[in-house]
Amino acid sequence: MWQWFYKLGSPRYFYEMTTGFVPWLARATFLLLAIGLVWGLGFAPPDYQMGDNYRIIYIHVPTASGAIWIYAMMAVMAAMHMIWNIKVADMVAKSCALIGASFCAVALVTGAFWGKPTWGTYWIWDAKLTATLILFFVYVGVMALRSAFDSETAASKAASVLTLVGVVNLPIIYYAAYWWNTLHQRSSELGVRDASANPPEIWIPAVFSGFGLIGLIFVIIILHTRNEILLRERRAQWVQELVKQETGNA
């Protein structure tokens, strides 16, 4: 197990290991997203209270959850980099920042469109909404901090520290609706845990879109990490041989 763990920390091993299954993961992701979004946005029945306005949850809920879990992954990678100096962990953390910020931005925008018909306003300084906005700023701050250093080593360490400090915001986002009297509802499971809350034709497409978004997260992070590996290891012999091979095939 530990041997596999240390091998995974090798940029070359990570690149070669992901070469084969990324296309399969991308196909499965596309299929899940296509089924979930087409079904949810086009064919799921209207909600008895909100009508068609509720359909935005098929995008809002998975992107909001994804923004939180991506940050958690980024924090784990940052800790691994600081403790064991694993280069691939830092590359994954750097990749997480961009997609995490993108998911957080989509969650905030779709949440605003959800809030207008539900609460009568696009934005309110609700505890959960405010904490999510702070999460977006932390993502942007991590990316900005990386770009502020000329040294990759110094940038990685500074970004890792800020990432770990920002972890304190994650439980605040998750429990805000429980700790304070907020407008945001406490649960967004779409009736998956409580089958009586919504009929299957409403929550089943949410399951498809949710797993599709999870697949999309991993596909983008892996592809971005592979590009980062080629950039940082461009002077390594195995990368130069790979470039020659690809050039020859072209």
Describe the 3D structure.
It is a single chain. The protein is mostly helical and 250 residues long. The protein contains 9 helices and no strands. It has helices spanning 2-8, 11-43, 57-84, 87-119, 127-147, 152-166, 169-179, 200-232, 237-249. The longest helix has 33 residues, at 11-43. The radius of gyration is 20 Å and the shape is globular. Residues 188-196 have low confidence and may be disordered.
Distance between the termini: 38 Å
Instruction: Examine the coordinates and then state which fold CATH places here, giving the name of the CATH topology.
Output: Four Helix Bundle (Hemerythrin (Met), subunit A)
Unreliable residue stretches: 188-196
CATH architecture: Up-down Bundle
Strand content: under 5%
Count, helices: 9
E-strand count:
0
Number of domains: 1
Q: Helix/strand/pairing class, anyone? A: mainly alpha
- What's the SSE pattern? HHHHHHHHH
Mean pLDDT rating = 88
Question: Quick recap of the structure?
Answer:
With 250 residues, this protein is mainly alpha-helical. The protein has a single domain, classed as Four Helix Bundle (Hemerythrin (Met), subunit A).
